[in-house]
UniProtKB/TrEMBL annotation:
Lineage of producing organism: Bacteria, Pseudomonadati, Pseudomonadota, Gammaproteobacteria, Pseudomonadales
Organism: Pseudomonas jinjuensis
CDD domains noted in UniProt: M23_peptidase
InterPro entries: Dup_hybrid_motif, Lysozyme-like_dom_sf
Protein name, as recorded: Hydroxyethylthiazole kinase
Length: 763
């Protein structure tokens, strides 16, 4: 899944994603345009977002993810008629509306196949040309302009993310995560790693001498809190941080690993887990082994120093009773909960969980555990004495004032909750949802008239029956929009259509001394082979944290697509090359015997040093002679048939084709450059025509690192990279699919959202 906010301001270099989302999603305050309730505790299924301004104008509304058009309603022309249903509250409310259906993947298999909808209400204009229900919509497509919500001169939308079920998205059906009995999801695993440390897990002043030993009986024990502890293991831009948290979400301490711990993770895994570094790498990154290579020894420890109230302490995060999770499990100690305990059909929140979070039942004024609206909705209302009915209106207003304070005070505890309740966009059932108003203010004629106006206004905005959305009922799950988008932006799992879109439409190369631009084909057979390999590629990108950021993914694919001739060849198959048969294989074309052996040893396979040295010497001879005779397999008695199968599997086996590329990415430290913010420089080459492409020094350094096999800091070396112009084009094409907020200049220095001469691939 690739997802973004519905407004896309220009990004700032090096800006954290949370800061970008703060600028992109200007939310209404809790209780007034916020999620999930209003001040009177009526359910509010989305958020009001104010369009950010750029160049003196509000930004357009965009599709948050690839999908299909599920419903569209053109906005009503503004009317000066005060009695018009859309003039409710003394000001116009725009009623343009779009609903998109998103069917995608967040991991492997049916359990990670997800469907959700995004709702864009209060559009003043709709930009889709000839919109057809069922038609394809791509992420970042312009949907329209934000309109008014009873506030003249503002540009706002009501935005929702809804789904029929939560299990595939969140990984469970229970309110909280079962963190004691087993580890978390493997089908979907991304973001940070998390560990549950039950009370019996001991903490120590020192770690044992051996990193893999779980026996630390000689070290002094450090006092730790008696309750369960949770450790968040976060990697970001080369750094690693461990945060200690209670189940209530209180942060007890934080500790940073040594500088560049992530960039050095390959070497650290080799040093600490030499018998099988690949399994050790996964243990260090994810807290558990996700791939096929076993830990050696099987119960190898995972020692980390954490921060406790009493000071630093060492703990084995792979101890028997420690359980491990990722952001894909939406841990409740980080605030994620599923709430479905309000089962009636009215609009009022009567969730005991929400009332407890807001501490409403602790109100000394109203210790009866209910509120005015609930009383008005109850079967006992009809039997209330007249004075108690009259009192409900006053109680309602007192409770509203209280709720304003409580929502402001407690919103941080609610902001990651997902709720199941009825939509507010049905035509039918308005009286069942809002009839409490006429009972609370039963003696107030003005209130009754206001109710009728509200009813007409709501019916003018309603769309549920007309939309007839496939596969979702009127009572469904509502997700906190900002938090949903922020969470799934860390997923990085590419669907078939997302992967296909990465390919540029054309690529530059020199032919007969002249630059030519050729179409990049993606015929059915190649597409089919890539689909067979896609899951393995996604898993490798996940394990090695390439998919942890759009910049890394774009830099990886900018090279992988060009190296494999646009996914057509996972084997160079160049029998005339001096380095054959150790020529390029896999998604980054692993080349030379030294690199193959390095990869095999990383997987825990035994290759003698004698054979490695023989192959190294033969490679020197072959290079000098520009002839591969010295590298023939028959020259090496220690090169077994099994090793030849290992070599071939880097092309033929989906796991090795992907894993070898990502291991190579890791040991060459390509992420050091990929993590740098790109600055796009317009370039022109001439052939029969002039061709424009955009270069970026950080990506050029990644390309040189991949092509030459070592980190490259000399920018002048970039020009020597094989096919560097096509790699730049592939990188830009991937960036346009994977990221947002970039700007490209034309010949006059004017900035544009899309690069000159770059046509997106559509499916």
């Amino acid at each position: 899944m690739i997802i973004s906010p519905p407004f896309l301001p220009t990004s700032n270099p090096g800006e954290p994603d949370s800061a970008y989302l703060n600028r992109a999603m200007l939310e209404g305050i809790p209780g007034n345009g916020g999620f999930p309730v209003s001040y009177d505790l009526n359910w509010h299924g989305g958020v009001h977002l104010t369009a950010p301004m750029e160049s003196g104008a509000p930004l357009p509304v965009r599709a948050v993810a690839d999908g299909t058009l599920a419903y569209v309603r053109q906005p009503t022309a503004r009317s000066s008629d005060e009695n018009h249903a859309l003039n409710y509250g003394g000001a116009w409310t725009d009623d343009g509306c779009i609903v998109l259906r998103h069917e995608t993947e967040i991991g492997e298999g049916d359990t990670a196949h997800v469907v959700f909808f995004s709702v864009y209400q209060h559009l003043s204009t709709i930009k889709l040309s000839d919109p057809v229900v069922g038609g394809k919509i791509y992420r970042k497509d312009e949907l329209g302009q934000a309109g008014s919500i009873r506030e003249p001169g503002t540009a706002k939308i009501h935005f929702e993310i809804i789904a029929a079920e939560a299990a595939s998205l969140i990984g469970r059906t229970s309110a909280k995560l079962d963190h004691q009995s087993s580890d978390g999801r493997k089908d979907s695993c991304w973001g940070d790693a998390h560990f549950h440390l039950p009370p019996e897990v001991l903490c120590y002043e020192q770690r044992p001498a051996s990193w893999v030993s779980s026996d630390n009986s000689t070290a002094a024990i450090v006092t730790r809190p008696a309750q369960s502890l949770f450790i968040r293991l976060r990697y970001a831009k080369g750094q690693c941080t461990l945060t200690t948290i209670t189940e209530a979400g209180e942060v007890l301490g934080e500790r940073a690993e040594v500088t560049d711990f992530e960039y050095e993770l390959y070497q650290t895994a080799c040093d600490r887990y030499p018998a099988c570094p690949s399994a050790g790498y996964e243990l260090l990154r994810w807290g558990r082994v996700l791939g096929p290579d076993p830990l050696r020894p099987a119960q190898a420890a995972h020692w980390r120093q954490i921060s406790l109230p009493s000071g630093p302490a060492w703990v084995n995060l792979n101890a028997t009773t420690v359980t491990c999770f990722s952001d894909a499990d939406f841990p409740h100690w980080l605030g994620w909960q599923l709430v479905d305990d309000d089962t009636d059909d009215d609009s009022h929140c009567q969730s005991a969980i929400v009332r407890a979070v807001l501490k409403l039942d602790e109100d000394p004024l109203f210790p009866d555990g209910t509120d005015a609206i609930s009383i008005a909705n109850s079967p006992s209302y009809g039997g209330l004495p007249a004075e108690e009915k009259d009192w409900l209106g006053e109680r309602y207003e007192i409770e509203q004032e209280r709720n304003v304070a409580k929502l402001s005070e407690c919103y941080q505890h609610l902001k990651r909750f997902a709720f199941k309740f009825p939509t507010e966009w049905r035509h039918e059932g308005f009286d069942a949802r809002y009839g409490w108003w006429t009972r609370i203010f039963h003696n107030d004629e003005a209130a009754v008239q206001s109710y009728e106006k509200l009813k007409a206004h709501q019916k003018a905005l309603a769309f549920w029956e007309e939309a007839a959305l496939d596969g979702i009922g009127s009572t469904h799950w509502h997700f906190p929009p900002r938090q949903f988008i922020e969470a799934f932006r860390r997923c990085g799992w590419l669907s078939q259509t997302e992967l296909t879109q990465l390919l540029p439409m054309t690529a530059l190369r020199k032919a007969h001394g002249q630059w030519v631009s050729e179409p990049v084909a993606y015929p059915g057979p190649i597409r089919g082979r890539m689909e067979e390999r896609r899951a393995a590629l996604n898993k490798a990108l996940r394990i090695f944290a390439v998919s942890s950021s759009p910049l890394r993914l774009a830099a990886f694919f900018g090279n992988a697509m060009q190296e494999t001739q646009w996914f057509a060849k996972l084997h160079e198959d160049n029998s005339g090359a001096w380095y054959f048969p150790w020529d390029g294989r896999g998604f980054l074309q692993l080349t030379h015997a030294d690199n193959y052996i390095k990869y095999w040893r990383f997987r825990g396979r035994v290759v003698s040093e004698t054979l490695r040295q023989q192959l190294r010497n033969a490679a020197v001879t072959a290079h000098q002679q520009n002839c591969n005779n010295a590298l023939r397999d028959s020259n090496f008695s220690g090169l077994t048939p099994e090793m030849i199968r290992w070599r071939n599997s880097v092309e033929r086996d989906s796991f090795d084709a992907a894993n070898s590329a990502c291991a190579y990415w890791s040991w060459t430290k390509a992420a050091v450059f990929a993590d740098q913010s790109p600055v796009m420089v317009r370039q022109v080459v001439s052939g029969a025509d002039a061709f424009v492409y955009y270069s970026s020094i950080p990506f050029g350094q990644v390309a040189a690192t991949v092509n030459f096999g070592n980190p490259t800091t000399t920018t002048s070396a970039i020009s020597g990279v094989n096919g560097i112009q096509a790699r730049y084009q592939a990188y830009i094409s991937a960036l346009m699919v994977l990221s947002e907020g970039l700007r490209f200049t034309d010949i006059h220095g004017q900035e544009y959202e899309y690069p000159e001469g770059c046509t997106p691939r559509r499916i």
